[in-house]
Each structure stands twice: as C-alpha cells, then as structure tokens.
Amino acid sequence: MAKVKTTFFCQECGMESIKWVGKCPGCGQWNKMVEELKPTKAQQLQERRGFVASETMARPSRLHEIETKEEARIQTSMSELNRVLGGGIVKGSLVLCGGEPGIGKSTLLLQTAQDLAVKSISVLYVTGEESPRQIKLRAERLGVTSSELFIYAETDLNLIEGQIQQLKPQFVIIDSIQTIHMPEITSAPGSVSQVRECTAQLMKLAKLGGISIFIVGHVTKEGNIAGPRLLEHMVDTVLYFEGERHHTYRILRAVKNRFGSTNEIGIFDMKEEGLDEVINASEVFLEDRTHGLPGTAIMASIEGTRPILVEIQSLLTPTSFGNPKRMASGIDYNRISLILAVLEKRMGFFLQNQDTYVKVTGGVKVDEPAVDLAIVASIVSSYKDKMTQSGDVYIGEVGLTGEIRRVTRVEERIKESKKLGFTRAIIPKKNLGGWTVPKGIEVLGVGTISDAIKVMFKE
C-alpha cells in the first residue's frame, strides 16, 4: 500500500513546505503552517485532464478587434452599497465581503437579497454556518418576506453547483467560504487548498453563467481576511465591513474594485430592524462635537468620491518619565510621530516631556495626507491650551521642512465645509486659484506651519 504523503501550507500566503516550520519563509508569520494531505501524481493528472476537458480552447485576439460594452449593473435600494460597488452590482462579478464576527455582514447581504428579490430577481442564499430556521428568524426581524429568496444549508460545493444549475438564480450568497469544501480535495474545510479551489470554482460559475456571487470571508485577529492572500487577488471586489462594537455606525469600505473606484466607503447605522444607510456622513461624525475646548480641529477628508468632515482631538499632558507615551486612534501612529518631530525641529516646541494622544472621533479611520494640518492644529491647541476657532476647517499636507503642501480636490472639500456652516478654511497656498470660492466662506492660504499657527490663533 502506498504511503500517504503530507505537505504543509501557510494559511496566510499559501506557501508550501515539505516540513513544518515555526516561521513561514514566505510572509514571515509565526505558527501559520498547517498539514494537509498531498494528492498523488495520478490524482493531479486526473484533475488536470478534467480541467482541460471542461475548458473551451480560446485563441488570442487583437486588441482593436475586441468588442466592449458597459457592464450591466443591478441597483439595490441602498445607495450607500451602490456607491461602494461603483454604481451597483455587476452581473457575473465575484465579490468578497469580510469583517469581524457580529459586525453585520450577514445582515447586510440578507437585506440586499430582499431588495433584489422584490424586483423579481431570483436569489439563492447558501449558508454553511446557520440552519434555515436561524436564517428565517433573522429574516422576520429584518422584514424579509420575498418568495424569490431561496435558503440552502449545504457545505458541499458540488451539491451547491447542482442547485445553482437547477434554480438558475441571478444572485448567489455564500456564507461563508471557510465552511465550503470540495469532496475531491482531501484537506479540511477552511484550509488553504479548499478556500483556493472553491473560490476558483465559484469564479468560473460567475463568469460563465453571468451570476453575481457574494462570498463572506472570516477575518483573523489582525483584521485581515482569513486564508491565502491569493483569495483577494482572485475576486473582482473586496469589501471590508468595519466599525467599533460600542458604536452603532458601520463603515463598508471597498479596498479593491475592478468595476469602480477603490477606498470608497458607505456608512450604515445598525438598528434592531437592520442596517439603515447614512446619507450625510459629515453631520453624523460632527453631531457630538464640543465647542470652546482646546485640542480639537475639523478637517475635510475625501473618502472615495465624496468629502467627509471629521473631528481630530489631541491631548498633551506632561510626564516625568524619560520616554513619553504616543497613542493614536483612527490615524497612523507613524504620522503622529512625524508631525511631532516637525513641530519640535521647525517650531521649537519642546514635546519630549509630553504624553500625546490623538484620536479621530466617530470610529472612522483617516489615512490621507490632507489630515496633517488638522493634526497640527489640534496638537498646538492642546499644547498651548488655546482653542481654535469653531468655524475653522483645516486642509493640507505637512512636509518635513515645515511647508504646507497642496492636496487634491480642494474645491469639493470647501463646498462640503460651506454646506455644514463653516466660515473659514485654511488650505495650502498652492491650492489657491483655478477654482471659484463659494460665497459665505473665507479661504486662507498658508505656506508653512508658522504661517498656519499665526492664522489659527491670530498671533
């Protein structure tokens, strides 16, 4: 009898090793190698023959001979979801939706299924983690009652494919990909081989049948989608559903989209009856804003295709220890360290004995360079214990030499600020000109941090 051979795969990057190692040579992660049965050469040859036989031989085409047309999209009743997807659900697309447990992934997809089923679009919801009775209980709470929505509790991909061919749905939800398996693959569900092969088969079903397929993916404790990184490369769109447990607001972020812009976000409010979309995000993030206190500043950020105003808060307190503490929430920690270094070197502020805490309120994350000037304003305000003017908004990138560098789409940021009642905007001097300033808001251009601080506190 032939000896059963095993191999080891990294759950993060999918690298194969003939023996177990504590640290993956490919991605450098610890304790990610899992043991799986290695198929024999006969099994590999049989799978290869089946793959070749099932594929239609295609010939290379000249670029100018290829016909193109605008992708047909299916609109849902949630404009926030349509925006994140680039205008709606593309037929034949494969979308991966990830997020922490309990964040609302299944709720969002079940509401989306209801929206489509109401339009007489047949929907198949495949659940590998819950029973049909559990799905029914959630559906009653969310008000999902359409007869065009089919629930199928199964984890065998071959049986799922058979039901898809029989029902011929236009929209399929797989919840979740880590529970689906192919019997011909010897490894356990959720392993690198199973996730990779199941996703490849689902992608083939979506492209050949013109079916829009949404798959739910688990996340690791670091917040990344579990399984090999190849999973995110295979799908058309990757959506991350994020938010803090102590906030009711949820943010749906597109980090990859072949049919639209990336870094687009949609904002929802989690309620007992399901997710409600938030149309005016800026008012939500500024509704609890406090006036008359030092250490706060407002910045206009661009998230995808729309501007959003958020509040930056800073707190500086003296410390008697040699190494001051630096903490950041919603902003990159390294950006805070860089700005503190620029303030010390260029402005002469002595911050080496100050614990520094910087936070973006509302649970949103900001990672664009235009936030720098607002961080400077909030830090200096807390350090001097002077409050900034409540009607000011700050936009600009800070360079290492202390200059304020230009940012993109400044006109849209100013218009959003004017709409919310702000009366003055401090922007880079190089962004002045070439566009029309809206009436009712004063725009001031600054070239350095020194100029900005003089304008902020009228020194």
Taking strands numbered 1, 2, ... along the chain, how are they ordered across the largest sheet? 8-7-9-10-6-11-12-13-14
Backbone CA Rg? 26 Å
The CATH topology annotation of the largest domain reads as Rossmann fold
Largest sheet: 9 strands, mixed
**Whole-number average pLDDT?**
86
Q: What is the CATH first-level class name of the largest domain?
A: Alpha Beta
Low-confidence runs: 48-56
Number of domains: 3
Instruction: Give the N-to-C terminal Cα separation.
Output: 87 Å
What is the subunit organization of this protein?
A: single chain
Helix content: 25-40%
Strand content: 25-35%
Total number of beta strands: 23
CATH H level of the largest domain: which superfamily? P-loop containing nucleotide triphosphate hydrolases
> Helical stretch count?
12
> Judging from the principal axes of the Cα atoms, what is the shape?
globular
Assign the CATH architecture of the largest domain.
3-Layer(aba) Sandwich
Structural class label: alpha/beta
Note the topology.
Blueprint: E1 6-10, E2 16-17, E3 33-37, H1 41-54, E4 73-74, H2 79-84, E5 89-90, E6 94-99, H3 105-118, E7 123-127, H4 132-142, E8 149-153, H5 157-167, E9 171-175, H6 192-209, E10 212-217, H7 230-234, E11 237-242, E12 249-257, E13 264-271, E14 274-277, H8 281-286, E15 296-303, E16 306-318, E17 326-329, H9 333-347, E18 354-360, H10 372-384, E19 392-394, E20 397-398, E21 404-405, H11 410-419, E22 424-428, E23 442-446, H12 449-457
Parallel strand pairs: 6-10, 6-11, 7-8, 7-9, 9-10, 17-18, 19-22, 22-23
Antiparallel strand pairs: 1-2, 1-3, 4-5, 11-12, 12-13, 13-14, 15-16, 16-18, 20-21
Helix pairs in contact: 10-12
